[in-house]
Design goal:
heterodimer; A: mainly beta; OB fold (Dihydrolipoamide Acetyltransferase, E2P); six-stranded mixed sheet; three-stranded antiparallel sheet; disordered N terminus; disordered C terminus; B: alpha+beta; Four Helix Bundle (Hemerythrin (Met), subunit A); Alpha-Beta Plaits; 5 domains; five-stranded mixed sheet; flat
């Protein structure tokens, strides 16, 4: 698991990436399937006062206390209350060289599919609503555009701290 | 069964023996006439030499052989122990540790050490140490009882896998021969028939009659590294005949039936400590599991209480009792006497007092006080700093002490004791005490405090724990680099402990480190703020009071409560946490404290006490300082644990501000 998690951003070119696709804020995102541990229905979330808005909550995953992230904050999308389709995707990332289990809210989880990396294009430098360093690329699958986020960078503590205030205002 | 590398076994055992050797040498340094200590050191060296050779650490064996020869001369009275000898011997002990840790890297460094040793005791390169001469038997010789006999009858059988693990019966027998005159009989009666014979299994057993006045310990030491699983029977030879006939002795060790007379090692005279080495990670894993069990059990209790099913409730209570017992036992396993740590500091003090030319009487007490092993490990560095400071800054030079009418020898006391749910570790010296004027000047110069700030002595004392603070006028290699005391402070924060400093000018200073007994599970008080629940470590809670309505409605700026004629600052947690929900009608204040500082926390409701398994927060929440961790409650949701030390500090800032305003008001 750890190994896979470390490789999340390092899939050799010319291959396909096995990815889990999910909806967040009306866009389709793909995350490396091998880093995913489990997908949970919505559970009670404990809010952490004064925590960055991106990781404002904690959940219990099988006796572990796991931070719950909301990608919408980083991608400047509007907040939306959870509904029946809301899921929590639990996966592993590398934070300051330490494997860390995190949860992430998804409006809906689609499927596991293979994304041909040849179809993936780097994020355009202009004309994009999101900070380019958070996006590894835009892939095409079944005629749809899929955002492949740079998870380790999205979660990097610098971004989770004060530096994301810019995004929060945009989200508001 | 896990296969254990025999060399690793040797390393672990040798480490123990070396620690013991260090203590013996330091004791010897304190009392140069105690021949029992010389004997103890000699035995330790002998053990390392023998087993080192057996496990292929030839460098170690060669070096220790010379070392041992020097101590043999001391034993025989050919040379007298001296302070210089103890110093060199300690260096030699360090060298052995290096040789064992990194073979083939340090052999050459040993030559000068041995040269100095030889110079001190006046040995040439000598051959094998001769068997113990009788005249060396001083009254202090041999701590074990039952030394009165003229020899020992030793019967032993190695474990079946001993040969494949590298043990050699020939070496063991050689060691026995070094102790005295031996008659060795090998018994082949357990030898199987040829077709069943496994050449790697040791089928022989031995019966040795040893004529020597050595102690039982000396004989047991020969078998120190192979004792697991072996059968060993050591019986004193009857005093009468020099060579006893097999039928002659009567009593417990009847040799007429050797196979029946086998005693398992467990049946042998009890060792002081029968213990088991377990990897620390396994204990952590066990504790994690127990933690999960406690959580699951709490959920079960909740469900049982709701169900009002009597038989379910009975079982639940039973499980509650069992898991509480299991938890206590598991915590107990991790508890280690702090004496293991104290031992290391004797060496530190010894080296420092030589380096600084200060004569130090170092006294430790409370070594049996038990603490969580991980806590003990993390205490090592902070205590080194505190002790260094006491000797380097605290104690004056012998001349200055004499001038001040104190004994030339300074004293540093290190003690540990349980105080309720805490352990207090105290380092006190009888030196000059903290110089508050100098601390003040220094703090003002570096901008830590305003030049007109009113600070009490104890507040000034606390400044030494501020990062980058050091009053040493000259930077020395030992302390005074401006790092150190703030490391102590940081470590204590991480361990949820605290530091108290007490100092009297000219009389000495006392630094007390207070720590919780364990880091993994605490008793907590659950409180509610808005719709969120939080846990406050119960050890920090002093009392709970109702927030008086006039204060609750009053101005938000004056956050003070008068409790028994003392002003206690309080924090409204809902303001701190930005709680949106309307507040309850009757708000409560939980008074928490660390040491002398107190602060009140205003909450909506007090829910009761729970056992809390502490889970640390991830790096994503490292910036959120108000929480020490999180825990999972009976209903499966997560609750945050408040960081009391941090909250008290914020409360303290309020208080300082208010007092400054008051002083200014009076001045105006």
């Amino acid at each position: 698991m750890t190994q896979h998690a470390r490789d999340i951003d390092a899939v050799p070119a010319g291959e396909a990436m096995r990815a889990l696709t999910l909806d967040v804020g009306g866009e389709v995102f793909a995350i490396e399937a091998t880093s995913v541990r489990e997908i949970l229905d919505m559970v009670p979330v404990t809010e952490v006062p004064n925590a960055p808005a991106f990781v404002a909550g904690l959940i219990n995953v099988r006796g572990r206390v796991v931070p719950l992230a909301d990608l919408r904050v980083k991608f400047g999308m509007e907040h939306r209350p959870p509904d029946d389709d809301t899921r929590i995707v639990v996966f592993e990332i590398t934070l300051e060289e330490e494997p860390t289990v995190v949860g992430m809210l998804a409006d809906r989880v689609h499927t596991v599919c293979d994304i041909a990396l040849s179809t993936m294009e780097p994020a355009p430098k202009v004309g994009m609503r999101w900070r380019p360093e958070f996006v590894r690329g835009i892939a095409k699958h079944d005629g749809n555009f899929i955002i492949v986020p740079e998870m380790n960078r999205v979660f990097s503590t610098e971004g989770a701290g004060t530096a994301n205030s810019e995004n929060e205002t945009r989200a508001g | 069964m896990t296969q254990i590398d025999p060399a690793e076994t040797f390393r672990l055992e040798a480490q123990d023996v070396l620690e013991q050797l260090e203590q013996t040498l330091l004791d010897l340094g304190d009392d140069l006439d105690d021949m029992a200590l010389v004997d103890g050191a000699f035995r330790a060296l002998h053990t390392i030499k023998g087993s080192g050779a057996m496990f292929g650490f030839t460098e170690v064996a060669d070096f220790v052989h010379e070392f041992e020869t020097a101590f043999d001369r001391l034993r025989k009275g050919d040379a007298a122990p001296s302070g210089e000898l103890v110093r060199v011997a300690l260096g030699a002990k360090d060298h052995i540790a290096r040789l064992i840790a990194e073979p083939n890297a340090h052999a050459r460094a040993g030559v000068p050490i041995l040269d100095r040793l030889r110079a001190i005791v006046g040995t040439g390169i000598q051959a094998e140490a001769p068997p113990r001469p009788v005249d060396a038997a001083t009254p202090g010789n041999g701590p074990a009882a039952g030394d009165a006999s003229h020899g020992w009858r030793i019967r032993f059988r190695l474990p079946e896998d001993a040969l494949s693990l590298g043990a050699s019966p020939a070496l063991l027998l050689d060691e026995l021969r070094e102790l005295g005159d031996c008659t060795v009989l090998a018994s082949a009666e357990d030898l199987p028939s040829l077709e069943k014979l496994d050449p790697e299994i040791c089928h022989l057993s031995w019966d040795v009659t040893l004529l020597s006045d050595c102690s039982r310990d000396a004989v047991e030491d020969v078998f120190l590294f192979v004792e697991d699983g072996m059968q060993l029977d050591i019986a004193p030879l009857p005093a009468a005949g020099p060579r006893s006939d097999a039928a002659a002795p009567a009593g417990p060790s009847d040799p007429a039936a050797p196979p029946a007379g086998k005693t398992d090692r467990a049946g042998a005279p009890p060792r002081e400590n029968s213990s088991l080495r377990v990897a620390a990670e396994r204990l952590d894993e066990l504790l994690d599991r127990v933690g999960e069990l406690v959580i699951a059990q709490a959920r079960l209790s909740q469900i049982a209480a709701e169900s009002s099913n009597p038989s379910l409730m009975t079982v639940t209570e039973e499980i509650e009792r069992l898991s509480a017992g299991l938890r206590d036992t598991t915590m107990g396993i991790r508890m280690v006497p702090i004496g293991t740590l104290f031992g290391r500091f004797r060496r530190l003090v010894h080296d420092l007092s030589a380096e600084l030319g200060k004569d130090v009487d170092f006294v430790t007490s409370g070594e049996q006080t038990e603490l969580d092993k991980t806590v003990i490990e993390s205490l090592a560095d902070p205590l080194v700093h505190v002790i260094r400071n006491a000797i380097d800054h605290g104690l004056e030079s012998p001349e200055a002490r004499a001038k001040a009418g104190k004994p030339r020898q300074g004293s540093v006391r290190l003690s540990a004791a349980h105080e309720g749910a805490e352990v207090a570790i105290t380092v006190s010296d009888d030196g000059a005490g903290l110089d508050t004027d100098r601390i003040r000047r220094k703090a003002e110069a570096s901008g830590l405090i305003a030049s007109d700030a009113t600070l009490s002595d104890s507040e000034l004392h606390r400044l030494i724990f501020h990062p980058g603070f050091s009053t040493a006028q000259e930077v020395s290699a030992i302390s005074g680099r401006g790092v150190g005391m703030d490391v102590v402070s940081r470590t204590m924060d991480a361990l949820r402990g605290r530091i108290d400093v007490d100092s009297q000018r000219g009389r000495g200073a006392t630094v007390t480190l207070r720590l919780p007994l364990t880091l993994a599970i605490i008793d907590g008080m659950m409180v509610r703020v808005g719709r969120n629940r939080y846990s406050i470590p119960l050890s920090a809670v002093e009392e709970c009071v109702e927030l008086p309505p006039d204060i609750a409605e009053g101005s938000r700026g004056r956050n003070f409560l008068r409790i028994r004629d003392k002003l206690v600052p309080f924090l409204r947690l809902r303001e701190l946490f930005g709680t949106q929900e309307p507040e309850d009608l009757h708000q409560k204040v939980v008074i928490v404290s660390t040491g002398e500082q107190r602060v009140g926390l205003v909450v909506d409701q007090i829910l009761g006490n729970t056992q809390t398994v502490i889970k640390s927060l991830s790096r994503l929440h490292a910036d959120v300082e108000t929480f020490a961790g999180a825990t999972i409650m009976g209903d499966g949701t997560v609750a945050l644990i408040l960081d009391v030390a941090n909250l008290v500090r914020s409360g303290q800032r309020f208080e300082t501000r208010l007092r400054d305003e008051q002083t200014k008001g009076q001045a105006a």
